[in-house]
């Protein structure tokens, strides 16, 4: 079975693309959702996050995401320390998930595949891209945050063009080319590999 990654910058539509693959019967691991789950359930993560950021980042046994975000976003050093705690546990969880899958291929969706080094654990990478202005608009509408906040998050991610150069397949989600047709073409190719 092939292990396939889907990545793209904030607002690119990688979750939408992953959901289309899922509709086709392909198992999808959502790394962001898994990290959120693991930050509440993993003793290893909880202990290290509490030690680094203070006991008040957990409230009633659950991570206070807003409090933690206030400490790490806009602070690359703090964000890097948090990632050093969360990424290895999430990567390990995804590897265990992949081992349980059957079929021609399974997909892991993650925004920071290359940044975390988890690309080395998959066979192929699919990049999802869209024009920056469209990505910003989508994120502002979806997350109800300011354009400045979106740009701040974009600055913390790898350059979009570099990310796409590293991918084996690239899907254009700029709303000018059929997204479903692009997914179907890649789906057929992956089934043949």
Which secondary structure elements does this structure contain, and how are they paired or packed?
Elements: E1 2-7, H1 14-23, E2 28-30, H2 31-41, H3 43-53, E3 58-59, E4 62-63, H4 65-72, H5 76-100, E5 105-109, H6 113-116, E6 124-129, H7 132-143, H8 147-155, H9 160-165, E7 169-172, H10 179-192
Parallel strand pairs: 1-5, 1-6, 2-5, 6-7
Antiparallel strand pairs: 3-4
Describe the overall structure:
This protein has 193 residues and is of the alpha/beta class. The strands form 2 sheets. A 5-stranded parallel β-sheet has the order 2-5-1-6-7, sandwiched between helices. The termini are close together. The mean pLDDT is 92.
A few lines on this structure:
The chain has helices at 14-23, 31-41, 43-53, 65-72, 76-100, 113-116, 132-143, 147-155, 160-165, 179-192; strands spanning 2-7, 28-30, 58-59, 62-63, 105-109, 124-129, 169-172. With 193 residues, the chain is α/β, with parallel strands linked by helices.
């Amino acid at each position: 079975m092939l292990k396939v990654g889907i990545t793209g910058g904030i607002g690119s539509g990688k979750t939408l693309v992953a959901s289309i693959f899922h509709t086709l019967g392909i198992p999808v691991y959502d790394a962001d959702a898994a990290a959120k789950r693991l930050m509440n359930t993993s003793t290893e993560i909880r202990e290290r996050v509490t030690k680094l950021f203070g006991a008040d980042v957990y409230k009633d046994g659950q991570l206070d995401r807003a409090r933690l975000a206030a400490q790490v976003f806009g602070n690359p050093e703090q964000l890097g320390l948090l990632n050093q705690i969360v990424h290895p546990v999430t990567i390990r969880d995804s590897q265990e998930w992949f081992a349980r899958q059957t079929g021609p291929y399974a997909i892991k969706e993650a925004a920071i595949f290359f940044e975390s080094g988890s690309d080395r654990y998959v066979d192929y990478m699919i990049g999802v891209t869209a024009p920056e202005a469209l990505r910003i608009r989508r994120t502002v509408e979806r997350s109800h945050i300011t354009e400045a906040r979106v740009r701040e998050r974009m600055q913390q991610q790898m350059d979009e063009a570099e990310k796409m150069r590293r991918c084996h397949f690239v899907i254009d989600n700029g709303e000018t080319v059929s997204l479903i047709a692009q997914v179907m073409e890649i789906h057929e190719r992956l089934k043949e590999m």
